[in-house]
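User: Fold this; tokens only.

Assistant: Input:
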Amino acid sequence: MFNKVILIIATTVTIMFVSGSYTFYQYSVLKSLERNVESAIVKGIDPITVRCAYAIQTDPICIAYGSISNNTAPSTPAKK
């Protein structure tokens, strides 16, 4: 009986520690992004560009932004 109580307590503490660590990591990433976006606004850089630097490749906002912001024709390689 005593071993079951110890196991339950250890499992609960481990789950709480992992959950707290993950939450702190996500909070740190969010605060870093917030500081970088504010810095970009002050410098006159597009904040969506900064946001997309942190996003995953399949982020629909960044895909749409990339497709409309690239209005230049692709360059052709120089002939030799």
